[in-house]
Amino acid sequence: MKRLRICILGATGIVGQHFIRILHDHPFFEIVAVTASPCSEGLEFGKATDWMISGSIPPDVSNMVVQETQLGKILKVDPDIIFSALPSGVALDIESDLARAGLPVFSNAAAHRMEETVPILIPEVNPEHLKLVNYQDYGDGFIITNSNCSTSGLVMVLRPLIEYGIRNITVTTFQAVSGAGRTGVASMDILNNVIPFISREEEKIANETCKILGHLENGRVVSAPFDMNASCARVPVLDGHLESVVIEFEAPVNAETATKTMSGYTGEPQALKLPTAPPRPLITMYEQDRPQPKRDLTLSEPELGMAVRVGRIRAHQNRLNMFLLVHNTIRGAAGASVLNAEFARAKGVLK
Amino acid sequence: MKRLRICILGATGIVGQHFIRILHDHPFFEIVAVTASPCSEGLEFGKATDWMISGSIPPDVSNMVVQETQLGKILKVDPDIIFSALPSGVALDIESDLARAGLPVFSNAAAHRMEETVPILIPEVNPEHLKLVNYQDYGDGFIITNSNCSTSGLVMVLRPLIEYGIRNITVTTFQAVSGAGRTGVASMDILNNVIPFISREEEKIANETCKILGHLENGRVVSAPFDMNASCARVPVLDGHLESVVIEFEAPVNAETATKTMSGYTGEPQALKLPTAPPRPLITMYEQDRPQPKRDLTLSEPELGMAVRVGRIRAHQNRLNMFLLVHNTIRGAAGASVLNAEFARAKGVLK
Amino acid sequence: MKRLRICILGATGIVGQHFIRILHDHPFFEIVAVTASPCSEGLEFGKATDWMISGSIPPDVSNMVVQETQLGKILKVDPDIIFSALPSGVALDIESDLARAGLPVFSNAAAHRMEETVPILIPEVNPEHLKLVNYQDYGDGFIITNSNCSTSGLVMVLRPLIEYGIRNITVTTFQAVSGAGRTGVASMDILNNVIPFISREEEKIANETCKILGHLENGRVVSAPFDMNASCARVPVLDGHLESVVIEFEAPVNAETATKTMSGYTGEPQALKLPTAPPRPLITMYEQDRPQPKRDLTLSEPELGMAVRVGRIRAHQNRLNMFLLVHNTIRGAAGASVLNAEFARAKGVLK
Amino acid sequence: MKRLRICILGATGIVGQHFIRILHDHPFFEIVAVTASPCSEGLEFGKATDWMISGSIPPDVSNMVVQETQLGKILKVDPDIIFSALPSGVALDIESDLARAGLPVFSNAAAHRMEETVPILIPEVNPEHLKLVNYQDYGDGFIITNSNCSTSGLVMVLRPLIEYGIRNITVTTFQAVSGAGRTGVASMDILNNVIPFISREEEKIANETCKILGHLENGRVVSAPFDMNASCARVPVLDGHLESVVIEFEAPVNAETATKTMSGYTGEPQALKLPTAPPRPLITMYEQDRPQPKRDLTLSEPELGMAVRVGRIRAHQNRLNMFLLVHNTIRGAAGASVLNAEFARAKGVLK
């Protein structure tokens, strides 16, 4: 089977760089174009980007000439699929236009996430939401989004625990600065500090979690009625969102049982052995002081930033307390969209 | 009225330094001795300590010869009161011995906090607990403790909200490294990291909060039956514990009303105009991204680290969400004990 | 003598905030207007700025309506003096225009520093350069600049050592992020990192040092012929530039003698007891590991950020090695310009 | 050829962990024992250590039972070679005893470095110093040390430049906290700070550089007569020592020529294709703001932390300025000793 030709939108930012890192040597995909804002147009990618992530720029991508993120120019390179790392404001129109032009769009942008027929897909969590693409108005094209970075870790932990009967969820986040993009957090603001606010993040966690864990009815999602309570803070950490999660159940839950339920959980991406799927999506840790962003996000593990780590699992009455750690720009962004594309291909949605 | 002669135990650490900063020019107290571990004995204080806090060592204290923390040696300097910044292990016996020798002991150590007749006193919160000293077995002496640093901020916020009927409390902390003492957190562990564990801290928050908010019955405290849920983490911040607090009430609470209740709250220390009492113990903030450790703990304010700041107050159904900030080594340690002594003196317990 | 009416240009940034902090209660000056970019025009200052420095915004300034940084609008408020915290690009024309309109301009901007008749004045170092204003073409107005932040610390240390015969100077800087302004350094770039480059900083140190230490000849400065060697790096520190300085002399210099020469040095600002002049401009430290940015820049000292601290003074053959510390936004920026204005007033240049 | 049996002394610290990471799968060596202080004796290595470095503990080493660092116990495991990551105080006697017992000792400790017949070997720099082992009094055994971490980067840069005639060298270091070991730098000391002092580091740089670059005469080293000037500081960075280096030559040196000389430099380890030798020992960088510790020490490169990066190479009169970056616990510690052992084996010194 020949590799599908892909175009990465917004390729010069951190999420774009992770798209390139994951996709440049991918068995199903082949990078044929990268886009950025007009000021980078015409530059070689290696000159247009400030490569911030581990490893070097793949030489073939480094020499690629950056295109402007503009419909006609993108169509001219004749891609089979689009991956989008665009900022939300920019993403809204161009993603729709590309879908309307018949292209499958896998997007990390928030712009279309809450639309009725657009799935926020996490194949381990809500694989059935993939069917929503049949209800979109884009002809052959469609849009599939991944969730917000903090949400991705949370729903993966919630998924196997739903069977115990969840009543409400309280989450407090410790979010890394990379989540705000290349220049999103000024050092004057975060050195020796914590900022207890991230614009629109708490709403995203609440809304996206309920949508992802919702069920399909007549070609639309009925959000799960979870009572969500999110408080988000930025901490002086480069990569990795840590989250303190309290789940209240209908009845008492045993910590050991819950731990086993989580650590044993696998989903369709594991069954299908998708290239970007981690062998175990949830890694439970037994050390008393883990997971930690600096120590538990190493890319030298086979999970490559796609597993969510959970630790300090404690039961108290009807509640379960835990800390989880998710790689915000991989499982919470670029890796999530790549997994979605692999899954869509495996299910025949992507041809 | 002549100033009472005080001896500060464990004076060379960070809490000890704050004791000195606050007390060296105090209207009621006069530092006559400072103690430390045997290895500092005989040194001038200025040589024995590594002064870490703002301002300089007061010259008279700098020249004071450090005593060993040993009963006979302390009694020889004939103090009227003891302030203790000792580590818990060391504090247990020596504090009892000093109380038994007829001395009032105001302690920041955890050693005696959970004893039945020892108050964890916060004069704005549980002034009536001062009476417990009458039930102690120490003759003329007694022990009064202040709470754990994280607890101090939490109970001050809870106190005025109790009237609304609290059902349970969930708190996630972002704690500064100074809370672990001078060398408590290695830089290898915390640079670019968050550690989701602080030994025994979650238990302390739960137990101390319930004790402080409990009522007296027959000369002992009956702990309040709050359902407490604490998750503690260390962040790369020098000073100031930030806490994400979720309070569930019996019925819905209006955010604006709750804010007014908190910001208007004052207690006996304010009525008595005690020197170390902040004009307003709770300062509510309206900015969308405050309080922040780096920006809101400045000692240039009249509160001098003794007020607790609260922000991002949000109501959702029966719950109130907020972030609070407490200066962990002042309101959460040295300043708390000084306020306790001022209060005890004002109430005639200290003569 | 009535207080002179001042207008602060670029008042919303960090240097602007320090101007306000130092000047709002100044015996000689009275803030009558503050300017910023057009987007802040018409806002109250308290709403237009994000106050980052210690202390609160003085209430009278907080309520002041921000003006646009535009000639006509500034003249309308009829100031007696201008203080400028503008970025260099903006400063060039407006500072000239204001001087041409007859106003004395005290500027922290680099725009005019290297002009022949514009002094880079540091009253402890080159008080005689004040005379240059007589050679400017601005009629009654004039422009006096202060130096670049790193340069200010260096020349203050060099000044008393010149008599020993300096051959060349090597300096490596450890510069704080506040030197790049409110959002100048992204946290992604500096957390857990050092950046060995600051645009145009090495040239500024070389050129400004030679100009400041130069002598006047026919109404212009003849730069000192020092062989300068600067290497500049940014470190994850909020405030305070540390500099490793190696001075090579014509002959061996004794470390103790040099230390005494520095610590005993005072200049005209000290003799004139100017309000912003530190009692001792150079504070030599004897501890083996000082000065340190976090510990030695406290504003609780009488020097209030205007003294330069020097430590680890070591002689080796013809060379003297040392580390110096300068508060980059006070002695290296706002405080420097205020001292220049006080000095100009004392010398009758400012009426 | 069968793999030599190795014992790693002081294996639980950071340098010890790097020894294990590099050696556990090495073509020439096989880990048969690991030692630590008595308090770890008898524990499985995985329980005795707090693994801080990237990757996981190799399972076979994880299960190894830790020995006490004691002569008899070490000899009982019958090793062929010793690698030592001991602290200097402990290293002095045990390393001598092991050499006397006929074992080759490759040590990262400073204890024996300055002894007349002990080489501080860097095979790219002073391969001929290997011969010194013939002059040691240890019978079949010998001691070979690697240099101090800061020195290792410096001498590698100096080596190819010696031909231009070096007159003196000035270096200012920005050293990572890992250089002080697992708990060597307290977070209270280094967060938001720079410490301009590292105990005995400046002397080590001066003495070791001169010894390494010295020549052999009658079985001892005659140190090179370089005039060295070192100033050392600790910065809040986890890994990687950055150094600002100024080299004064006898005559002007062209920056481009010097860059080529450095980037083209290779030594015996490259010619011998030793497993741990980086393809290019010196990597010159052309970007205006590199090298940076966070960005340029990635272990995903083929150099694996063994190359030294050099950037910002600027010539000025007789001087060359540059910044270099060395991985302090790999090229500056464990990797250096492993390369020494590989080199000794290739030269027939290790059988």
Q: What does this 3D model show about the protein?
A:
The structure is a homotetramer of 351-residue chains. Chain A has 351 residues and is of the alpha/beta class. The first copy, chain A, folds into 2 domains: 4-148 and 334-346, Rossmann fold; 149-327, 2-Layer Sandwich (Dihydrodipicolinate Reductase, domain 2). Helices cover 28% and strands 23% of the residues of chain A. The first copy, chain A, contains 12 helices and 14 strands. Chain A has helices at residues 14-23, 45-48, 59-62, 71-76, 88-100, 149-161, 187-190, 201-212, 255-263, 268-271, 293-296, 330-346; strands at residues 4-9, 29-36, 67-68, 81-84, 104-107, 142-145, 166-175, 215-217, 220-222, 227-234, 241-249, 282-284, 308-316, 319-326. Chain A has a 6-stranded parallel beta sheet, sandwiched between helices. Chain A is globular. Chain A starts with a strand and ends in a 5-residue tail after the last helix. In chain A, 58% of the residues are buried. The model of chain A has no long low-confidence stretch (mean pLDDT 96). Chains in contact: A-B, A-C, A-D, B-C, B-D, C-D. The A-B interface holds A 170, 172, 174, 191-197, 227, 229, 231, 233, 235-238, 242, 244, 246, 288-295, 311-312, 316-317, 319, 321, 323 and B 170, 172, 174, 191-197, 227, 229, 231, 233, 235-238, 242, 244, 246, 288-295, 311-312, 316-317, 319, 321, 323.
